[in-house]
Each structure stands twice: as structure tokens, then as C-alpha cells.
Amino acid sequence: MLALGRTLGVAVVIAAASAGVQAQEAVDVAKAKAEGKVIWYTSTPIEQGQKIADAFQKETGIKVEMFRSGGSSILRRFQQEMDAGRVAVDVLTHSEPAAANALGKKGLFLPFKPANFDKVPDAAKDTNGLFVGQRLNMMTHYLRSDKVAAADEPKTWDDLLDPK
């Protein structure tokens, strides 16, 4: 998840709620409530995203305006807002780690380190808290047992190179 916002309160609060943890640093909830809503662009599946938004609103009383689309569309919309000088979004959730890193290096995000930040694998976060992986994808290889004998099943990556 990437966090930026009109106030630190909104960005930090939504990041804490969507990560299912409490923020370690103080959150300016009063300032966030004065804004009235948080705008969240997300590629999170709609059902899961709505549960996150509902939980956040129930906990804070702050409405979540959710725009759900694919990761590339969200990033394109954010970039268009940046280019126009009128950023509407408070929080981004997308599935493009390289983009998160590049945008973080440009100084576009506020740091946020939720509780248990130290337990998140280093590959799934920015050490300064500019982004934190909300979900990780697993790559799985399948073996057709009708084509490969049990004795010949690969045990290592190098085994996959064996022509048999």
C-alpha cells in the first residue's frame, strides 16, 4: 500500500485500517474527520476492498470514497492528477512494486510504518515506510504426473533444466 494525502491523518489512518493493524505513530483523526472523507484508489478485489472501507468507516467515522480498477489504470490516473497539479487521491493500493519504488524515490508518498512493520519481509516494503506490501502473489509450478515419473520429479531449479 502506498500512502499520500492532504493530511497525514487520513493517509496513516486508512493505511492502518486496511493493513488490519494499529498505527504506531500518533494519528490526527480530528483533522482527518474535518476533511470528511478519504479517497482510495485500489486494485484490491472489490468485495475485499469494500470490507476494508467499511471497517475503516466503522472504526473512524470517516467515509471512504473508493475507486477500484486495475493497477495500471490507478497509476495512470494518479500520474494524470500529478501532471495536472490536482491530486485527489489520499491512498493508493496497487500491484506494481517497481512503480511503488519509483514513485517513492520521487518523494510523492508519506512514510507509514504500521505495527509489526519489522515482521514484513524486506522485499515487500520500503525500509523507510514509503510503501508496504498488502498482499503477496505466489508463483506455482505444476507437474503432470502422467508425463513425469515420481522418481524423476524435479527437486531443485536445476532439475528443471534436465531434458528428461
Describe, in plain words, how this protein is organized in 3D.
The protein is α/β, with parallel strands linked by helices. Helix content is 35%, strand content 10%. The chain contains five helices and four strands. The chain has helices at 8-19, 29-35, 46-60, 71-84, 97-105; strands at 2-3, 37-42, 63-68, 91-93. Strand 2 (37-42), helix 3 (46-60) and strand 3 form a beta-alpha-beta unit. Helix 1 (8-19) crosses helix 2 and helix 1 crosses helix 3. It is elongated. Residues 1-26 have low confidence and may be disordered.
Secondary-structure topology with pairs:
Blueprint: E1 2-3, H1 8-19, H2 29-35, E2 37-42, H3 46-60, E3 63-68, H4 71-84, E4 91-93, H5 97-105
Parallel strand pairs: 2-3, 2-4
Antiparallel strand pairs: 1-4
Tally of helical runs? 5
Rough shape? elongated
> Strands of the largest sheet, in order across it?
1-4-2-3
Structural class: alpha/beta
Properties at a glance:
disordered N terminus, about 160 residues, four-stranded mixed beta sheet, alpha/beta
In short:
The chain contains five helices and four strands. Strands 1-4-2-3 form a four-stranded mixed sheet, with helices on both faces.
